[in-house]
């Protein structure tokens, strides 16, 4: 690699689990929100969750950018608990418990406590607070640690809120009420597109009930979700929830290569359909179509350098996929590197590439660095021409799809961009 | 502090940042997690400061906290100064270094040696018991202490406005009206509006002005400092109502030794008279049914009360301020909980306060005293609250409400 090194970005080869991912530069534009932001946004989307932001005036005041109203559409309460100078030193347990009791009295049924930097720094023992309140209030409470200094950004706000929700509902009822062997499949994410519909039909025909769990109705489905016997994960943000449910799990979201998707479907079939009952392979035509597209992509996309600025939880799987098709990964925007990413790291390194891992907090450095490459970008970046990027709405559309269909749409779009590039225009992808 | 159903009072750190980040030519660097600065930048952008604002944050991680590493500040500053031309650097703490006790002052001193010739100032505003009033006060004071250079008074009379801040509704319009009044009544030009229309150069020249006008009590310390350093007299107050504005102009005349342009005042009062007289007329009939209430920053509440109650004779309603140290003269300090209680029995009539309180009380949500969190200052030419044009604006608002 002949890339400049002065930005201090992390080459993928140096990444291990819990390696700190460097920022692209001094946070300016766009910067990166803290987990409180996403936890509040998610709670607002999910509905039926009251929230209590615990921290300094900064957190409480600006939390109103997300929770604009102190009462939600279903009567949820969105309050703030501000620590005073005394509580910063001696802890806020007493005041916090009083605040939670007051929310309980006012009718909050499920309260999410969002701890921000200072309560996390002083080590407030939230488990103890919850234990002490157990039996004294009717509301269910759960908390997330949203201290920004522990993370590069906001993703934890999504992941932990989902995980803690799963934990809350797992601990609610006695195990006897759960029907382990019933025919319900939990689908975490949205079932959109033709292939998702076909998957739904196939499972329904095989006698399974599908419980589709997405942002809009998750709280209403939390009790029911525990009755599922299998979890299919499509939305990577719900990965921690899938783990908290402690059910057999198949992740469809991290597979892009035709062979990998086929393997996922085969596993799913083995788990859900008795042997010999369904002879036909699921979506064989789509598999073959994707294989064709992959062959074509190997020719048309070969050697094209790219960056990924969105879908951070899937950045490594996507990069590994495109690398396998001959594209050249240059930079992947991620907040952290997880155990699950290791397999994709190895795949990328084995292809002979060593892209940078950075948390994108500003674009000036990115722009300067990228001058030397005619980059494509998956996700918006001011460092790349619009004609060379799959913009955010398109990315959202593509990643709402399932399996072969998702990969087909992704490759089609990339090949369209490559054709545009061939037609001529700018010398490189940079603005 | 404790539980807030709407939002807590902004902290001292926030007050300082709001004051400093509007100054052109300065880089503001916060040592802390980056989440806060993203929100702060949005707040500044909504106030109209997206282009000039050079506010950055270092971010920090667990290792920095555990080991007390502060390298990020230096690295950040190197990177920023490579890309942006800065005439001064303002270093502010966030809540995290305040808890762990990072010696920001010492770091600032070290940085001053590193960037010779570039003022690198530290603003000690991190205390957890400080609210934004104290933050604004500290920022104004430190700026006036450390940046102004020795200067001769300008030949043409000039003045500075001290204490125009983005926390107040119509801050920009109020500053413009004050400039207009000074020009019309005395021919005085305003050289620096600290800090909503200020740059590093104009702050350095603060000592050249003949007079300083302090618009809020948070600016008194700064005014005193400038008086001590440059012998510049200052006048503290905000001009509300016809009587209040005339009195304020007379005080400036006394302080500067200039004669007020009487013709200007006569013309201005004539412009106000239609709505002013009509409001007074309506009050004669319906005055008994309506009271005037207001809550927020003490200088605004006091000014509005003087105009509405003392000058126009509207019945006195509920008044409160939002800082303990400001209470007095019949204006108590009320915490959010108490305000919400009091609002249940607020007398009918006009209420001017924060948007949430107006909503809670079922009142007109346009009668604001503070800038709301979702307020956008797209139009800088809206009418003010202060001065003669403020009289026209307030009287029309109140007239419509009472009609």
What's the CATH C level of the largest domain in chain B?
Answer: Alpha Beta
Mean pLDDT of chain B: 94
Main sheet of chain A: which strands, in order across?
1-12-11-10-13-14
**Morphology call of chain B:** globular
What fraction strand of chain B?
5-15%
Fold-level CATH name of the largest domain in chain B: Rossmann fold
The dominant shape of chain A is: globular
The CATH homologous superfamily of the largest domain in chain A is named Nitrogenase molybdenum iron protein domain
Structural class of chain B: alpha/beta
Spans of at least 5 consecutive residues with low confidence of chain B: none
Number of helices of chain A: 17
How would a crystallographer describe the biggest sheet of chain B?
A: 4 strands, parallel
Averaged pLDDT of chain A: 89
Q: What fraction of residues of chain A sit in β-strands? A: 5-15%
The greatest inter-chain interface is formed by: A-B, 52 and 51 residues
Q: State the fourth-level CATH superfamily of the largest domain in chain B.
A: Nitrogenase molybdenum iron protein domain
Number of helices of chain B: 16
Our measurement of the CA-to-CA distance between the termini of chain A, rounded to an integer number of angstroms, reads 23 Å
Protein name (chain B): Nitrogenase molybdenum-iron protein, alpha and beta chains
Pfam family, one (chain B): Oxidored_nitro
Domain Nitrogenase/oxidoreductase component (chain B): 13-333
Organism (chain B): Anaerocolumna xylanovorans DSM 12503
């Amino acid at each position: 690699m002949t890339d400049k090194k002065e930005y201090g970005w992390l080459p993928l080869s140096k990444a291990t689990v819990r390696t700190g991912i460097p920022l692209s530069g001094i946070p300016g534009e766009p910067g990166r929100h803290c987990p409180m932001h996403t936890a509040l946004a998610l709670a607002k989307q999910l509905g039926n969750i009251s929230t209590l932001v615990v921290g300094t005036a900064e957190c409480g005041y600006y939390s109103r950018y997300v929770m604009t109203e102190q009462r939600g559409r279903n009567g949820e309460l969105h309050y703030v608990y501000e620590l005073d100078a005394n509580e910063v030193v001696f802890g806020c347990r007493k005041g916090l418990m009083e605040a939670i009791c007051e929310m309980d009295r006012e009718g909050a049924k499920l309260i999410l406590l969002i701890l921000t930097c200072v309560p996390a720094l002083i080590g407030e023992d939230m488990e103890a607070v919850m234990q002490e309140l157990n039996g004294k209030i009717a509301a269910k409470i759960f908390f997330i640690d949203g201290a920004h200094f522990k993370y590069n950004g906001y993703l934890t706000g999504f992941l932990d809120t989902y995980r803690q929700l799963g934990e809350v509902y797992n601990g609610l009822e006695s195990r006897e009420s759960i029907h382990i062997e019933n025919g319900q499949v939990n689908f975490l994410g949205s079932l959109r597109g033709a292939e998702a519909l076909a998957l739904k039909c196939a499972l329904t025909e095989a006698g399974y009930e599908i419980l589709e769990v997405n942002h809009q109705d998750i709280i209403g489905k939390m009790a029911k979700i525990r009755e599922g016997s299998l979890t299919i994960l499509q939305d990577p943000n719900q990965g921690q929830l899938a783990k908290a449910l402690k059910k057999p799990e198949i992740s469809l979201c991290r597979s892009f290569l035709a062979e990998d998707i086929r393997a996922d479907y085969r596993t799913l079939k083995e788990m859900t359909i008795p042997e010999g009952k369904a002879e036909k392979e699921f979506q064989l035509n789509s598999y073959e179509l994707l294989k064709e597209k992959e062959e074509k992509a190997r020719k048309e996309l070969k050697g094209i350098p790219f960056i990924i600025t969105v879908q951070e939880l899937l950045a490594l799987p996507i990069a590994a996929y495109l690398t396998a098709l001959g594209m050249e990964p240059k930079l992947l925007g991620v907040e952290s590197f997880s155990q699950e990413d290791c397999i994709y790291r190895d795949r990328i390194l084995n292809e002979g590439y060593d892209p940078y891992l950075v948390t994108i907090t500003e674009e000036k450095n990115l722009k300067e660095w990228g001058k030397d490459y005619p980059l494509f970008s998956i996700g918006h970046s001011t460092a790349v021409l619009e004609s060379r990027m799959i913009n955010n709405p398109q990315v959202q559309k593509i990643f709402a799809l399932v399996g072969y269909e998702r990969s087909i749409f992704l490759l089609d779009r990339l090949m369209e961009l490559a054709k545009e590039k061939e037609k001529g225009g700018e010398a490189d992808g940079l603005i | 502090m404790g539980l807030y159903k709407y939002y807590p009072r902004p902290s001292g750190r926030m007050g300082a940042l709001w004051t400093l980040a509007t100054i052109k030519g300065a880089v503001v660097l916060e040592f802390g997690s980056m989440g806060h600065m993203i929100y702060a930048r949005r707040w500044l952008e909504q106030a109209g400061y997206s282009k000039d604002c050079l506010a950055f944050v270092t971010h920090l991680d667990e290792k920095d906290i555990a080991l007390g590493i502060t390298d990020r500040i230096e690295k950040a500053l190197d990177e920023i100064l490579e890309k942006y031309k800065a005439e001064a650097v303002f270093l502010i703490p966030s809540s995290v270094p305040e808890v762990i006790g990072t010696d920001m002052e010492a770091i600032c001193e070290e940085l001053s040696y590193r960037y010779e010739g570039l003022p690198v100032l530290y603003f000690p505003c991190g205390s957890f018991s400080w609210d934004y009033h104290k933050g604004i006060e500290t920022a104004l004071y430190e700026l006036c202490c450390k940046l102004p250079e020795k200067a001769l008074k300008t030949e043409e009379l000039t003045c500075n406005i001290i204490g125009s801040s983005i926390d107040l509704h119509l801050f920009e319009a109020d500053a413009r009206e004050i400039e207009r009044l000074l020009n019309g009544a005395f021919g005085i030009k305003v050289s620096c509006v600290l800090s909503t229309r200020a740059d590093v150069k104009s702050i350095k020249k603060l000592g050249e002005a003949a007079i300083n006008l302090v618009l809020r009590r948070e600016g008194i310390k700064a005014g005193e400092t400038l008086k001590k350093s440059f012998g510049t007299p200052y006048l503290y107050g905000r001009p509300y109502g016809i009587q209040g504005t005339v009195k304020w102009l007379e005080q400036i005349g006394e302080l500067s030794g200039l004669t007020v342009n009487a013709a200007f005042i006569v013309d201005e009062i004539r412009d106000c008279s239609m709505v002013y007289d009509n409001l007074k007329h309506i009050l004669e009939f319906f005055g008994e049914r309506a009271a005037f209430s207001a809550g927020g920053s003490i200088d605004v509440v006091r000014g509005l009360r003087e105009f509405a109650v003392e000058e126009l004779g509207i019945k006195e309603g509920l008044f409160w301020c939002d800082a303990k140290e400001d209470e007095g003269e019949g204006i108590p300090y009320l915490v959010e909980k108490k305000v919400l209680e009091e609002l249940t029995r607020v007398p009918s009539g006009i209420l001017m306060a924060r948007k949430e309180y107006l909503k809670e009380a079922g009142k007109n949500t346009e009668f604001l005293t503070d800038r709301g969190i979702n307020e956008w200052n797209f139009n800088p030419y809206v009418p003010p609250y202060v001065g003669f044009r403020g009289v026209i604006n307030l009287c029309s608002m109140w007239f419509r409400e009472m009609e």
